[in-house]
Amino acid sequence: MLKFSSWRRPPHETLTLTSPILSIFRLLTQSPPLPDHIHDPPFSLTSNPKDNVKKKKKKKKKKKKENGESKKGQTFPFKSDLPFDFRYSYSEANPSVHPIGFREPPRFSPFGPARLDRKWTGTAAPAEEVVDPAVVSEQRKAVLGEPLSEDEIAELVERYRHSDCSRQINLGKGGVTHNMLDDIHNHWKRAEAVRIKCLGVPTLDMENVCFHLEDKCGGKIIYRNINIILLYRGRNYDPKNRPVVPLMLWKPYAPIYPKLVKPVADGLTFEETKEMRNRGLNLPPVMKLTKNGVYVNVVERVREAFRSEEVVRLDCTHVGSSDCKRIGVKLRDLVPCVPILFKDEQIILWKGKNGEEHDSQH
């Protein structure tokens, strides 16, 4: 048997109250009865005309992607006339050193699948066409135009050299990266010069950083103070005719290179190498490096230390093991010297047999 609840009069119809004051209060606080269609909504909500417009735009974007069109109206794959090989980093990579392995297959291009007309080799995307260097230098001279006068240089330096400059790019341990070239050209749309602040490992060799900035962007450095660089775009620079710089969609995995530190240093025996390492760990450090610091004078300090010592120690506490190895590679080529130990963020350097011959010649 189904039981039905007893019928009750709706609240708004019960007007029999005990006192007139209470009845007036209830009449004021009661809400009016709701219509029946509120409790019975339609099966589907009415569509908003704005939503229909958004859906149409999304369909158009999908069709453009299917046809291979980008946001800038360019089609895939990108074709760039830049005459150099595309790498993740230009200042921190040495093309003469070949890797012994890869952490990911070379077919995974960081530019994305079928987005670039160059083939990714695992470390670079080589240029297919060989360009005459004389033609490239003439094109750059045409963009730079006549040399700036001293007054013009002073005006640009005063405008862009300050730390509160809005046209600034930070250069970190990656050095002069490929996507950084696009950032520089984007700033050159509305500014004649760009302020570049360099920190970390690349500051060990500022000459190399300056060379790649001018070589890859086509501008000219008009000011340099320790780790601050002003890169000028040129008198005849046209933002509408800027070179095509396809962006890397992700950072590629670094390949595997041969070990930097050998078990036995070249020119020494095993016992001599062990004794050099123990001696270096007990020596006072020549310098104490900080993380993301400015290492402009490190090479000169190490060279001066090698005039009186055979082994040198650098204290790189809190710098990081990866940056320690990067510093060791730079010092090996710039000083030159032989890294013989990386332990507890301490770098032990030996000046090597070539360093002794160099000191005897001087």
TrEMBL record:
UniProt KW Transit peptide keyword: yes
Basic residues bias locations: 53-65
Keyword terms of this UniProt record: mRNA processing, mRNA splicing, Repeat, Ribonucleoprotein, RNA-binding, Transit peptide
Chain ranges of the CRM domain: 146-244, 266-362
Region feature Disordered, mapped onto this chain: 33-76
Lineage: Eukaryota, Viridiplantae, Streptophyta, Embryophyta, Tracheophyta
SMART domains according to UniProt: CRS1_YhbY
PROSITE patterns: CRM
Name of this protein: CRM domain-containing protein
Organism the protein comes from: Vitis vinifera (Grape)
Pfam families for this protein: CRS1_YhbY
